[in-house]
Amino acid sequence: MGIKVMKIEIRELKSSHLEETDKLFEKCLRDLLKREGLSHDQQLFDEEVRRLERMVRESLTDDRIRFYAAFTGDSVVGTIALFEPGDLVRCGLTPEPGCLEVGGVYIHPDHQRQGVAQSLLAFAEDELLRLGHDFYYLDAGFKSSQQYWVSRFGNADVLLRDYWGQGAHHMIWKRWLGGGEVRSFGCDGKVSVNEGIRGVE
């Protein structure tokens, strides 16, 4: 059976969407932590919700953060963001001045596997090209998120070994945007937190 593709509209988030995006983040994180076997970790849930809510609100006044949402009718079913590379990306490499990271990708549990994430990513890549960028960074720490991005991009370009504990790595991708086709650096690097990009094995 093929995947049903939703008809959505993607546009930049406004202050009028805050209440709905807050509920979306809570719903998505409850589902994500359950799949990760971390549904008992209330502190992690609270920290992640607060981080996302803060980013959305900062995007309303800070041009360095751009938050977009996928709508079906008046309902928000997914989000994606462009922003300066965060601390986790900087643990693994030294980002070039002015480059951006893609993150904040959250899809309502009832609308996953319906092409929403794919449409949001395509939109973000088009926006990056419009802004004059030819690559971006993306990272993932949760195992289910890592599985999704590995299935799309292949192995991570940088691996922060045991960053979240024994056997719990953090993954970073650096993706080129060229001629309408996205390509990975393809170095399949495996580095530790302390070694940085020079520690590629």
Can you put this structure into words, describing what you see?
By secondary structure, the chain is α+β, with helices and mostly antiparallel strands. The chain is 34% helix and 24% strand. Strands 1-2-3-4 form a 4-stranded antiparallel beta sheet, sandwiched between helices. Strands 5, 6, 7 and 8 form a 4-stranded antiparallel beta sheet that branches. Helix 1 (18-35) runs antiparallel to helix 2. The N and C termini lie far apart (41 Å). Residues 179-201 have low confidence and may be disordered.
Tally of structural domains: 1
Q: Roughly how much helix do the residues carry, as a percent range?
A: 25-40%
Shape-level CATH architecture: 3-Layer(aba) Sandwich
Would you tell me the structural class of the helices and strands?
Answer: alpha+beta
The name of the CATH topology is Aminopeptidase
CATH class: Alpha Beta
Relevant terms:
single chain, 201 residues, alpha+beta, Aminopeptidase, four-stranded antiparallel sheet, 24% strand
In short:
The chain is of the alpha+beta class.
Helices and strands, with pairings:
Blueprint lengths: L8 E4 L5 H18 L6 H18 L6 E7 L2 E9 L3 H6 L8 E7 L8 H15 L4 E6 L2 H11 L4 E3 L9 E9 L2 E4 L17
Antiparallel strand pairs: 1-2, 2-3, 3-4, 5-7, 6-7, 7-8
